[in-house]
Q: What sequence folds into this?
DNA sequence: ATCTTTGGCTTGACAGTGTCAAGTTTAGAC
DNA sequence: GTCTAAACTTGACACTGTCAAGCCAAAGAT
């Protein structure tokens, strides 16, 4: 009732939102290979061409999903670490949160790291969200290296990212199933045991 | 001239081989998304249906490529480590070889870890080759943990794999380019610096 | 020498895809 | 009521993976 632009903005945002929701449902239900523009349209109850009114092409809708994924990853990372105060505990909590996010949103997570599907130089918002999520990691790794050695350790940032990302990826692709099983609980337990080893890397 | 079956085997193997070679060329030239059965046929100079005479479907030809990839990775790993005798050096050499393989064969490497594209439970030979490559890693990690602590450390195997795999993956997806650059040399140098940090994990 | 088999290949179709082009509906502003 | 612009539609195009059917040359058996 109050402001006209508000209503206009909502109606402009709502079909876009509906398409994104349909895409997220589809992608987690059918996997990345099952994603198609036409199936998104079908699920949103519109014609096959309607999505092109809100996104220039397939890559753009995927980029929007990627951006949202990095926002959620950032939020999860902050939520998982803000309860802890000891740097080492925060570091550990971040690693667990990263793996848990990947295992809970497998197709979404994979998409976030498929540079052929979404070229970040063409999609600034996806890139920005990715960098914001990365910043959380940077801060927590810096905390732990400052606490342990009194100095920042830039290489440790990439080392830490590589460790948790590799663990998440291998689990997602089923490469560790033979050892840890395929259920969520057993995978999380396996991840925790591997993370414990990986954390030796921060010791002086 | 000598043996009939030998010639028969060669002519039976040769078109299959030609299709695999065309696939490998295509995949490294156009990336994973650029791969298509019809383009493979075009490059091999045959009709669009000819490949189906040698592979039941698209996934089967991809599985054959995956198998070949793991064979090469295994060969590279053995070649890179057999010159070294100190376990820690062998461990380091293996990590470098893993990353170098990924960076040298980006699309091929990615395919080897795309479980939606090639389900290993449906393609025994791909699975077997993957396991043989994995065995090389297992042996070298066991060597280094035995040398350091006198005991095997199974969790260290998965930790090591996660580290190098995550590093390779992040580099391939361009996620570390901002820091290390995108050229082969600068990436390899960056990888070496990260690997040095990661190797703290094997210290007692 | 003829017949049959078989491996390698072809052409033609079908439903599915992403996307271009052009037309239609609809809702609010004036 | 008219105008405008957003939201949407229908219809095409070239492309994909794959099914179905048939062609052809060489090899083996009779």
A:
């Amino acid at each position: 009732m109050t402001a006209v632009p508000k209503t206009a903005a909502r109606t402009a945002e709502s079909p876009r939102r509906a398409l994104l929701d349909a895409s997220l449902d589809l992608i987690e239900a059918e996997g990345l290979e099952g994603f198609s523009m036409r199936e998104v349209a079908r699920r949103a109850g519109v014609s096959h061409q309607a999505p092109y009114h809100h996104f220039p092409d397939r890559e753009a809708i995927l980029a929007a999903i990627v951006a949202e994924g990095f926002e959620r990853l950032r939020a999860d990372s902050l939520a998982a670490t803000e309860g802890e105060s000891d740097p080492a505990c925060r570091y550990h909590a971040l690693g667990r949160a990263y793996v848990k996010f990947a295992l809970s949103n497998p197709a979404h997570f994979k998409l976030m790291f498929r540079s052929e599907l979404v070229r970040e130089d063409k999609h600034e918002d996806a890139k920005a969200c990715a960098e914001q999520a990365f910043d959380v990691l940077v801060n927590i790794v810096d905390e732990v290296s400052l606490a342990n050695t009194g100095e920042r350790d830039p290489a440790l940032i990439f080392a830490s990212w590589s460790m948790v990302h590799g663990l998440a990826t291998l689990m997602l692709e089923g490469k560790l199933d033979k050892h840890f099983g395929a259920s969520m609980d057993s995978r999380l337990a396996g991840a925790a045991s591997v993370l414990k080893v990986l954390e030796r890397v921060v010791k002086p």
Q: What stands out?
A: Residues 111 and 139 of chain A are 25 Å apart (CA to CA). The interface with chain B takes residues 31-33, 113-117, 120, 130, 153, 155-156, 158-159, 161-170, 172-176, 179, 190, 193-194, 196-198, 200-201, 203 of chain A (CB under 8 Å). Chain A has two domains: 1-55, 57-202.
